[in-house]
Each structure stands twice: as structure tokens, then as C-alpha cells.
Write a structure and sequence with these properties.
30% helix; 341 residues; globular; 16 strands; Rossmann fold; 2 domains; single chain
Amino acid sequence: MITEILSADNLSRGIDALKNGEVVAFPTETVYGLGADATNSEACKKIFEAKGRPADNPLIVHVLDIKELENVLTGQMPKSAQRLVEKFWPGPLTVIVPSNDTIPLLVRGFMPTVAVRSPSHPIARELIQAVGRPLAAPSANRSGRPSPTRAADVWQDLRGRIPYIIDGGNSPVGLESTIVDCSVDPPLLLRPGFIGLQTLESVLGGRVLRPGADAPHKAPGMKYRHYAPRAPVIWINMKEDYHIEQALLQLKEEFPGMALMASRQWQRCVAGPFLQVEDTAQDIAHNLFSGFRELDQAKPDAIVVVWEENDQGVGLAVANRLEKACTKQLTWEGCVRQVTD
């Protein structure tokens, strides 16, 4: 298959492809998505095939507004979903609600629920409007790889596997959407994102819980390892400069060709590739996936990320992505936690 890159002002071929049951990669404000008509099970099978995605990993359905959400919902709209979408749509928030039969079981991961969001990116909205149906769209990467935030990232992973990639520039957020399960009470935060836990609770006026280990896998990213480059990722989760420096010296002996993603002060500790990021969670969030891909191109022995975990705002999402991607985590106590697939 020949893959073509379409410009943002030439969407007609992408729209026709979606209407005819094909898949198309397109930008959203979070990451690039690989879209297909969410009501067409055969079209959505092509998403799973192109990505190499497990069939029990549900897709997120993209709609324009709350009226289109009601079209895929069964029963009454949960109050938590109503409040959240009124506050955050269009934007980087996904709600999980009981689904009717409009959305095939394959798209829902064979669950009675469906994950739905309304993107704010103008290209994504134009595609949904023009196709006239909701679009199922997970991230446009090979399954398990870092999510794409640029058209070039999609090309790297999926060229020859999909017909079209729409180039809309860099995704401004850089991390996938926050996912809240509103089919239960109290609601559950299934995947942290740009909209933080504290913000969700302030809007809902009550607690939003985290799922237990045995919770059903209603949302993407819950069951399988995600976001990982080819090189092993090591996360230095520490605050004190002395401990960070000692950890870097230790890792340099073990991985002499390591790459580093950290603030400028630590560049002196590596001879290999270095990507500067600030210590803020917002900066890490925006650069994490693109940084993984950039550093991975140098084929380092390992990619080391220096960032102290926090659960404020997008910090919880950054920690979630690093935990999913890393093979080893170094904490300030000097403990090493091995992370397995």
C-alpha cells in the first residue's frame, strides 16, 4: 500500500476514504489519531490490523458534541458525564458511558460501555462533520510505541499500512486524553491526562477514584504496555541533586551509550544524545513522546528521563506514561523497581 501525506487544506481525499470504509491518520489536540467510521465494524478492523492492536483494547469514539454523545448512549446520561462534557468539551477529555448498538462491540473492546470524546482540533472536527458519523480513533502508531504528535511520527510507524496521513502540524497537548468512567458511581479515573484529578473533582463536587488492579479494561492503556521506544527507558524519579548525580554516574557505567532527557544542568553527565526539558510537568508532557522518538533514532543503550513524580495537574499523567514505558525506575531512596511487560 502507498501512503500519501495530505495537507490540511486538502482534506477531500481523506474524507472520501473515511466514507468508503478506509482508515486515515489525522491530528487532534492530544496526539495524532488513526480514524475510521466508528459505526462500521469492517472499517474499524483495519485500525487494529494497521496498528497490530489487541482486539480487546477498546477504541475512543470521536464526536462533535453532547448531542452526538447521546446518539451512542443507552439509557439516561450519567450526571457525572453531563457535568464533565459541559465543562471540558471540546477538549482532551474522554467519558465512558453505557453504549447502545450504534457502536460495534469490536470498537468497545467487547464491553457494554463506550469511550467518547469531542476533539477541539479543527481538522478532526471538520472530518467528523464531513463524514457525518462518529470516528473511532486510537493513537496513530504501532501498538506499544510512543504516541505520535507529528505527521512524521505516523509516517515512521504506519507508512505502507494506511492510505493517508493528514499533516496538521504538532499536537499542542502531546499526551492522550484524560479518561473518566462515568458509567459507575463514584466515577473512576481510568487514564490521567492533561485535565488533572483535582480539577475533575472540583467540577464534580466529589471524589474521583482510581481503579483497582482487577478492574475491567474499559479504556485504552489499561491492560498492555504502552508508549515505549525501542531502547529501554529508565526513569530517575528523584528530587535531590546529589541523588540524581549519583544515579546518572551509576547508569553511565552500565549504559555508556545512554541518551538523556532532563533539564540542562544534567547534560554534563552524558556524552551521548541529550534532549533538554524543563522540570515542569507541562513541559515533560509536551515533549515526552516526541523526545522518545528523537532520542531513539540515535540507537542508544538506554533512554534516561530525570523527573520527580507528582500528582498535581498533568503530573499524574506524566507519571502514568513513564510507568508504562520504563523498564526500570530509580527512586530517591536508592531502590530499583523493575517493571515487567
